[in-house]
Amino acid sequence: MRVRPAACAAAAGAALFLLAAPAATAAPDDGTETVTVDRTGSIATDGTITLSGTYRCLSGTNPVFVSSSLSQGSGLTSYGIGGTRAVCDGQEHRWVNTGRVLSSPAALKAGPAHVEATLMELRQVGLMQLPAFHAIQRQDITLVEA
């Protein structure tokens, strides 16, 4: 099978672009941008998880979100639970993320859990949007039946 030089050049260019793009960046942690996680979350009978907390961010020239993930037990598997668009005005705001684990709904149950919440901006770098983290919080919580 013969490979066309133009195809090879395009593939090489794409690979160089990806290698040259900076990795996910972190904003300086000066304590002014924060995200917290409430000590309890809820799980409904249909498996819907609700997590909440607060956040504060100063500015974002691009979209900023509060995302959250949840794990239980060994913590080897983490499940993304919703996302909320953040308002970056320097004021403290509440966030609430809700979601269901569709791949294995019985995987989560009431009891101890671990949550990671991130305050993240999507920055345009070339043709891609890469995450820039403003704040991260890891918190042990208790899931209670709703």
Automatic annotation (TrEMBL):
<feature type="domain" description="DUF6299">
    <location>
        <begin position="32"/>
        <end position="145"/>
    </location>
</feature>
<dbReference type="InterPro" id="IPR011050">
    <property type="entry name" value="Pectin_lyase_fold/virulence"/>
</dbReference>
<protein>
    <recommendedName>
        <fullName>DUF6299 domain-containing protein</fullName>
    </recommendedName>
</protein>
<dbReference type="Pfam" id="PF19816">
    <property type="entry name" value="DUF6299"/>
</dbReference>
<keyword id="KW-0732">Signal</keyword>
<feature type="signal peptide">
    <location>
        <begin position="1"/>
        <end position="26"/>
    </location>
</feature>
<dbReference type="InterPro" id="IPR046266">
    <property type="entry name" value="DUF6299"/>
</dbReference>
